[in-house]
Amino acid sequence: MANDNKKSGVFPCYENQFAVGAAGETTPSDTIADMETYGVAIENGIEEWHSYGEEGWVKRLMTAKSVKISVKGKRNLGDAGNDDIASVWMANGHAAERNFLWTFPDGSTVLFKNAVINVTALNAADATNVGPLEFEVQSNGKPVYTPAA
pTM of the entire structure? Predict the structure, then answer.
């Protein structure tokens, strides 16, 4: 019998959901209010070599991965997720780490354990702008992928 709850087709990007939590928290639940843009960059490390047996053709092996999520939005005082991200703007070391959960429209999730939060803009802009909050979430080790139920 087919799963009637299974999504198919195109979808609006807002169906992706993002949440932040303390580095030890297994299921981050604090969404981050007033974020407008999430951009995902996946970097791959690929080793290349030329062996005699390949007659000059290159051989390759993917040996590394990294994910960076760039986020832009507005600073929202009093929102738990927004406040948590903003609080690490001066942090170094492990104090700048948070667990970060990305839920896809189909219900599958990726948990970035101890992700490095790099705050890149906070509070200040033109006099008539709403105060910004911009940051990067950088993977820190292998994320945990959980398929949709």
Answer: 0.88
